Amino acid sequence: MQLSCKWTGRVAALAACVVILACKQTPTSSAGKVLRASPMGLDPVPLPWGKAGLAEKIELGRHLFFDARLSADGTVSCATCHDPLSAFSMSERFATGIHGQVGNRKPPTVINAVYNRTQFWDARAATLEEQAAGPLMNPVEMGMTPALVVSTLSAIPGYQVLFRKAFGDPVVNMERVTEAIATFEKTVVSGNSAYDRFVAGDRGAMSPSQIRGIAVFREGRCNACHEGKAFSNSAMANLGVGTDKPQPDPGRFAITHDEQDWGRFKTPGLRDVALRAPYMHDGSLKTLEDVVEFYDKGGIPNRNLDNRIRPLHLTAEKKADLVAFLRSLNGEGWQDATAPERLPQ
């Protein structure tokens, strides 16, 4: 199928806002994985590449991320809810924490979280370092205290070695723990998708349906919120998800107590979205097709529905093309962030 001049113009207009970066590589970490400083299609990862100790700090953070000993009952790690096998989210609607306690939100992915302006569905954390502390201290999730985190890690000789390599001495404190976890999370990135290769000039990277889906994405005004290189503006929006339930999740309102924030949640990025079902903050939509249908009908009416959400009336073909485009955003890089073969002892 040949692209008409009209189609080519549309694709070029969308691509104009995307800066394609060559995949710059840094030395390997002690895990033997290549750390990607500039994934194709994304801004450079904001880390001090080349600085002594960075690879060691990433490696420390990787071990902490996968270590369930950082939970009060030894059953939950960061990776329990941000599972690499589920694109650093999870395949269930809600996360299960210590003692079998179940939360009320679907864990957002760690992939490309480094590009978020805020963290968590309700934007309550300004940085990944602050985010890393949240689940550790949450009584439903990992149930720790700062003192318990420090005493647990200080009692493990292998961690003293890793802390010395990362920070120059074996001292363990919460600031170092969250810094190391956040530094590792900043390397969990996704670029070089079929879409990125298409924009870079590889016209065979995307199928005809995926290419048509680019125009549908714009027609449906998806790019009003899912904009930029990470396909998210990190802003808050009320789509009506869950507002028809007896006890709706108030979203950002629980943090700000501003009535305008009732039912508003942060816009997630769309890279690798096809690998992260179920969808929405409550995991209530099982498939991408369900998500498209939800938007097509105009969300769920409520007292604070975003004025950009309204029925789209897409044809069946356009819906299929939109889903196909979303699948073209699956990328590379985050697959390198694997669990350690053995945790420190």
Helix content: 25-40%
Number of domains as seen in the coordinates: 2
Indicate the CATH topology of the largest domain: Cytochrome Bc1 Complex, Chain D, domain 2
CATH architecture of the largest domain: Orthogonal Bundle
DSSP E strands, number: 6
Contiguous uncertain segments of 5+ residues: 1-32
Strand content: under 5%
Q: SS-based structural class?
A: mainly alpha
Taking the alpha carbons of the first and last residues, their distance comes to 58 Å
Q: Count the DSSP helices.
A: 12
Word description of this protein:
This protein has 345 residues and is mostly helical. The chain has two domains: 28-189, Orthogonal Bundle (Cytochrome Bc1 Complex, Chain D, domain 2), CATH 1.10.760; 191-327, Orthogonal Bundle (Cytochrome Bc1 Complex, Chain D, domain 2), CATH 1.10.760. It is built from twelve helices and six strands. Helix 1 packs across helix 9, helix 2 (54-65) packs across helix 7 and helix 4 crosses helix 7. The model is unreliable at 1-32 (pLDDT under 50).
